[in-house]
Amino acid sequence: MAQHIFSLEGKIALVTGASRGIGAAVARQLAELGATVAISYTASADKAQQVVDAIVAAGGKAAAFQADQADEAQVAKLIDGVAAKFGKLDILVNNAGVFETGSIIDSVDTSRFDRQIAINYGGVVAGIRAASRIMGEGGRIVSMSSGLAALAGGPGMADYIATKSAVEGYTKGAARELGPRGITVNVIRVGSVNTDMNPEDGPFSAWQKGANALGRFARADEIAALAAFLVSPAASFVNGAVLSADAGYSA
Predict the structure, then answer these.
(1) Is residue 1 predicted with pLDDT exceeding 60?
(2) Catalytic site includes residue 160
(3) What's the number of CA atoms in the CB half-sphere (13 Å) around residue 186?
């Protein structure tokens, strides 16, 4: 029974920004549950292909697609390309994102912040809009937010926090709109995760470990497990939720 309610056999999934870190872990876990997985990347073609090769070597099905999540037209083309290759799209995991810090007062060049907004928020909205047009009953959309959206914790992160808070708000609205069509839309509020972008032995790791109740970083597969639940039949009544996987950082 447990295998049935978590099975993704016959499902087509797209995980954005999945050439490494959390996205790669999500892609691998969805494939293990039976989904055919498309992963997107912006520039790391080699790393994306390594993820695809690992999934195929383990007996799964996967393919990589290039797209810049900051470009709405490319996001729409990505969604259409996945559906054209595999015949449909059942699952979208909006994982692609960037993290930029800077002072509200001292930041003069805002180009990095503008791109952050375009990727972290604009790319998510574009993906949800495009995917919802082709998804049918049982469709699943999951986006990644941050524990910082609940508790800033320090200065210099206002722009980043704003993008994640916007994703959470959009998710609730989308859940209301798409729910009647049998499509669920949820958010995972992620805490500190050991990735190459934020290693558990990095310069800010001590503060991060001390800020949550477990006193450690998450493994990427721990976040992937929650994503796998949310896109599975087991989560059919979970909609418009913001679920924290932050070891109690926001508690």
Answers:
(1) no
(2) yes
(3) 24
